[in-house]
């Protein structure tokens, strides 16, 4: 069995570090950071210049901006996996001490402390220099317009686990920019390169307008992100002067992360696309499928080319704990899948169940608590139990890891499907170190980005040690520093339903409704799906979640972006999905040869606005997928810039004698253009 560092080393090269004075150059997979003291002066990702000018702290003293003066940088720790260096600097009459930690996957975490000058140390000048003057501090990220096309932030609503019914937190950057309250993650980029900003809390931030803590504006050359740390003098510094600073001084601390994307090599989904997620019938843990029925179902799965079968949450009698009602029967089912060339994925998630053997002893530490101290979640499950949202900064993290190992080692599971585990849910539970208290005694939540990252990094490592894979179900939450430690993510549940605004009752959207809501004139448009639902931006493949009762109706929505929904529902949906898998296998379609419809070099353009077409280039020619976004029958002419000898609809065998096609419904139409 490999040790954890070898698993990581298969994906990310060792950190490459060169130091010259106060400058440090760092190389990692596909990216180079040129650090000027604490902050990057230049970032290259995927061959793209991410910045137009250095990232900088803009500090104003009585309204006058002063530049940071880096005075000393020294390395504290350096190895293949991690670099830690310290920087000492001043700006105006403030000392800046910082610690910069860089990890193998390109995450830079910066801990920044600001101290005012004091009377101790005449080197800093006269008494006037000791008077507090800092009244504004902004972190500015000038991202190239070539890269800075799209945005994604999380969460859309500050207290939400997901963002039901909205794509507002993803899209193309509007001409008038963005203004946001504090968010723990903001990404700006495109399919080639981008940059993420992370912060676990806004403690010490002072914003004159809470709705404008993060702003994005456009210039001719740059997409400028401003992180408004201080809009006024630090509260604890107000009223001090001269030798008054010799008393105990409260430093001002800011902790944040930066990471260029993509964060790892993009590995196509491949056979994992061929999956049946959970039972075809609603499972009942008290009356599970008998083995004969299960094997008959598995035979049909195999005939359709299915290579993975996911056991959803009902495989365990204790939620998120992995304990089947009948262990021998469950092992036999996994054995039956293996005999047919099908692998088994098992559910783990984000819950802490009252049926756990140590619930009474541990729940106070394990759970998420809101700012008012209340538990979150509390769903009722069968067999009778209540399930609360777990915080993986708490003491349940190791238990989940052990139970995942148990599922693979004892039952033969091949992969771990995680529901919500990759979402760093806001938490104020002081029992495990989450949250903070302001000067008025009010509790505030923190977002445990690094603790969740640490947890899933261990999960990813131990799963890969056993030859398996990890899938992250994280709808609306795409955080590269966490998602890097998954093999695939499953996004879209938050838009697969529609909610009654009064009762919040959910209703499944049909495929036609999905297309109309999210691609029509009133929809969120191309940018939102590009930013959130392809995964190529980040180096992690994406699958789309749709509850639509007809697979072919919903498949066109994301297939135009090179992404297929994961089939759910009855056998008819699996048969429809198998049609797509077969075409992709027969013609060798993969992400490397995909040309999406919005690119200028896409060789096919349709005359009807309601029809879009994306293309895969192959050795034999190219495959075009036409999708009718109107939901009603339509005819369209199209232009084609690539030479070809013939054009044939793959399903019907119809030869297109002219550049004209009829599309009757929302189901995608594949056409093979032979060289």
Strand content: 25-35%
List the strand order in the largest sheet: 8-9-10-11-20-17-16-13-14
Shape: globular
Based on DSSP secondary structure assignment, what is the total number of beta strands?
43
Computed Rg: 27 Å
Query: Low-confidence parts, pLDDT < 50 over ≥5 residues?
Result: none
Mean pLDDT: 91
Helix content: 10-25%
Q: Report on the biggest sheet.
A: 9 strands, antiparallel
Q: Structural class of the helices, strands and pairings? A: alpha+beta
So how many helices? 12
User: Cα distance, first to last residue?
Assistant: 48 Å
Description:
The protein is α+β, with helices and mostly antiparallel strands and 675 residues long. Helices cover 18% and strands 34% of the residues. It has twelve helices and 43 strands. The chain has a nine-stranded antiparallel sheet. A hairpin with a 3-residue loop joins strand 18 and strand 19 (222-230). Helix 9 runs parallel beside helix 11. The longest helix is centred in the C-terminal third of the chain and has 17 residues, at 449-465. The chain starts with a helix and ends with a strand. The mean pLDDT is 91.
Write the layout of secondary structure elements.
Blueprint: H1 4-9, E1 16-20, E2 23-28, E3 31-36, E4 39-45, E5 48-49, E6 56-61, E7 64-66, E8 69-78, E9 82-91, E10 94-103, E11 108-116, E12 134-144, E13 150-154, E14 170-172, E15 178-180, E16 185-189, E17 194-198, E18 214-218, E19 222-230, E20 252-261, E21 275-277, H2 291-303, E22 308-311, H3 327-339, E23 343-348, E24 351-353, H4 359-366, E25 377-381, E26 385-389, H5 397-411, E27 415-419, E28 436-437, E29 443-444, H6 449-465, E30 469-473, H7 480-483, E31 488-491, H8 493-496, E32 497-499, E33 506-508, H9 511-519, H10 526-532, E34 542-545, H11 551-559, E35 565-566, H12 571-587, E36 594-595, E37 604-606, E38 611-617, E39 621-628, E40 634-640, E41 646-649, E42 660-663, E43 669-674
Parallel strand pairs: 21-22, 22-23, 23-27, 27-30, 30-31, 31-34, 34-35
Antiparallel strand pairs: 1-2, 2-3, 3-4, 4-5, 6-7, 6-12, 8-9, 9-10, 10-11, 11-20, 12-19, 13-14, 13-16, 15-18, 16-17, 17-20, 18-19, 24-26, 25-26, 28-29, 32-33, 36-38, 37-40, 38-39, 39-43, 40-42, 41-43
């Amino acid at each position: 069995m490999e040790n954890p560092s070898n698993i990581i080393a298969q994906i990310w090269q060792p950190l490459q570090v060169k130091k010259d004075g106060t400058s440090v150059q760092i190389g990692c997979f596909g990216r180079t950071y040129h650090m000027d003291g604490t902050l990057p002066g230049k970032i290259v990702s995927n061959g793209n210049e991410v910045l137009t000018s250095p990232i900088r702290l803009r500090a104003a003293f009585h309204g006058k901006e002063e530049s940071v003066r880096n005075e000393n940088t020294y390395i504290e720790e350096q190895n293949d996996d991690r670099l830690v260096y310290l920087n000492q600097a001043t700006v105006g009459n403030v000392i800046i001490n910082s610690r910069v930690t860089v990890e193998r996957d390109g995450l830079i975490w910066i801990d920044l402390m600001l101290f005012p000058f004091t009377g101790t140390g005449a080197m800093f000048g006269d008494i006037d220099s000791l008077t507090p003057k800092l009244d504004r501090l902004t972190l500015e990220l000038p991202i190239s317009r070539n890269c800075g096309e799209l945005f994604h932030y999380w969460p859309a609503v500050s207290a939400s686990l997901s963002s039901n019914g909205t794509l507002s937190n993803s899209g193309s950057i509007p001409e008038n920019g963005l203004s946001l309250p504090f968010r723990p993650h903001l990404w700006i980029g495109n399919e080639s390169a981008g940059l993420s900003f992370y912060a676990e809390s806004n403690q010490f931030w002072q914003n004159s307008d809470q709705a404008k803590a993060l702003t994005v504006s456009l210039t001719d050359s740059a997409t400028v992100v401003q992180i408004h740390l201080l809009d006024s003098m630090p509260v604890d510094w107000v009223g001090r002067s001269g030798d008054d600073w010799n008393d105990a001084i409260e430093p001002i601390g800011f902790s944040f992360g930066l990471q260029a994307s993509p964060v790892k090599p993009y590995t196509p989904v491949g056979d994992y696309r061929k999956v049946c997620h959970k039972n075809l019938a609603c499972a009942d843990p008290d009356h599970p499928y008998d083995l004969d029925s299960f094997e008959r179902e598995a035979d049909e799965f195999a005939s359709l080319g299915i290579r993975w079968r996911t056991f959803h949450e009902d495989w365990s009698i204790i939620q998120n704990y992995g304990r089947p009602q009948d262990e021998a029967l469950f092992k036999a089912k996994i054995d039956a899948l293996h005999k047919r060339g099908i692998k088994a994925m098992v559910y783990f998630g984000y819950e802490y169940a009252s049926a756990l053997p140590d619930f009474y002893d541990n729940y106070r530490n394990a759970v998420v608590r809101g700012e008012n101290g209340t538990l979150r979640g509390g769903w009722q499950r069968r067999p009778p139990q209540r399930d609360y949202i777990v915080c993986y900064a708490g003491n349940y993290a190791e238990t989940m890891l052990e139970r995942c190992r148990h599922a693979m080692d004892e039952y033969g599971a091949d992969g771990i499907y995680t529901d919500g585990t990759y979402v760093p849910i806001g938490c104020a539970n002081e029992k495990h170190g989450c949250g903070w208290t302001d000067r008025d005694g009010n509790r505030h939540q923190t977002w445990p980005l690094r603790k969740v990252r640490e947890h899933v990094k261990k999960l990813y490592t131990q799963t890969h040690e056993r030859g398996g894979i990890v899938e992250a179900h994280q709808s609306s939450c795409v955080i590269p520093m966490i998602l890097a430690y998954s093999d695939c993510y499953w996004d879209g549940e938050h838009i697969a339903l529609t909610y009654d605004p009064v009762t919040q009752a959910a209703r499944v959207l049909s495929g036609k409704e999905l297309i109309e809501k999210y691609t029509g004139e009133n929809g969120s448009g191309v940018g939102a799906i590009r930013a959130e639902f392809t995964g190529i931006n980040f180096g992690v493949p994406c699958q789309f979640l749709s509850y639509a009762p007809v697979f072919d109706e919903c498949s066109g929505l994301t297939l135009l972006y090179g992404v297929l929904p994961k089939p759910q529902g009855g056998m008819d949906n699996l048969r429809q999905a198998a049609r797509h898998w077969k075409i992709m296998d027969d013609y060798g379609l993969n992400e490397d040869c995909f040309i999406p419809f919005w690119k200028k070099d896409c060789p096919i353009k349709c005359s009807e606005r309601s029809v879009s077409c994306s293309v895969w280039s192959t050795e034999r020619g190219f495959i075009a997928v036409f999708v009718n976004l109107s939901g009603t029958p339509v005819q369209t002419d199209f232009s084609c810039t690539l030479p070809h000898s013939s054009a044939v609809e793959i399903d019907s065998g119809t030869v297109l004698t002219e550049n004209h096609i009829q599309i009757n419904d929302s189901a995608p139409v594949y056409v093979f253009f032979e060289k």
